[in-house]
Specification:
Radius of gyration: 18 Å
Distance between the termini: 38 Å
Length: 225
């Protein structure tokens, strides 16, 4: 049974697209499109729960009628994990009604130990003059949660940065990876994980099986590097 902060989509269109994405015959363009479409579905489900609409002022329609405008709350930042998280970024930017900050984390797994190694971090550690300018939620974008090590490291970094909550959006996860990542954070409401699908097995190389291969390699045509 999944933890209460783990949400695995049952959307039928997502399930069909995930099946297409798994195929070795999907080329880089098709892979990019499917990652985008699945990310958008998962993000719609996630943000319907993680955000609320609030009144923001008034405006006027082309017919001259006044109406109350709305926006979303709380303030968020998008944090794609390099490289493959970049394939999810446009979906979130499309969904959110206004531009939000985008910060990048670079993490790779050491091939022997499978432990995460951070090689890039552009989180702004200076505090903005207005407290409201600092995001309350960091939306972490990473298509795959395999062993869970990368997710745990990224969640730790973001909580130390000062956000109140980390919302992880992924395309596919392993059962073990979800269990590990869902336990990160000091309080039960600090981490939520939203994912398109879940497989049971992880190989000794840290790859989900059946999975969908290395998403970064498939997106950027670096297979065989």
């Amino acid at each position: 049974m999944a933890a209460s902060n783990v949400h695995i989509s049952t959307h039928p269109c997502l399930r069909a697209k995930l099946s297409q994405l798994r195929s070795k015959s999907a080329n880089a363009r098709e892979t990019k499109a499917l990652i985008h479409e699945i990310s958008l579905i998962v993000a719609v489900e996630a943000l319907a729960t993680e955000m609320i609409s609030v009144k923001s002022g008034t405006d006027e329609t082309p017919l001259g009628a006044q109406y109350i405008t709305e926006t979303v709350h709380p303030p968020v930042a998008l944090v794609p994990v390099l490289r493959s998280g970049l394939g999810m970024l446009e979906a979130l930017q499309t969904l959110l009604p206004d531009p939000v900050p985008v910060h990048h984390l670079g993490l790779y797994r050491e091939p022997t130990t499978l432990q995460p190694v951070e090689y890039y971090n552009n989180l702004p550690y200076h505090r903005p003059s207005s407290a409201s300018a600092h995001p309350e939620i960091a939306i972490l974008l990473d298509p795959i949660i395999a062993t869970g090590g990368t997710s745990v490291a990224a969640i730790q970094t973001l909580l130390e940065w000062g956000v109140k909550k980390v919302v992880v959006i992924a395309v596919l996860a392993s059962q073990g990876g979800l269990e590990r990542a869902s336990k990160e954070g000091g309080a039960a409401d600090q981490v939520d994980i939203w994912v398109g699908g879940c497989d049971d097995e992880v190989t000794d190389r840290g790859m989900i099986r059946p999975g969908m291969g290395d998403v970064g390699d498939r997106l950027f045509l670096t297979i065989g590097k």
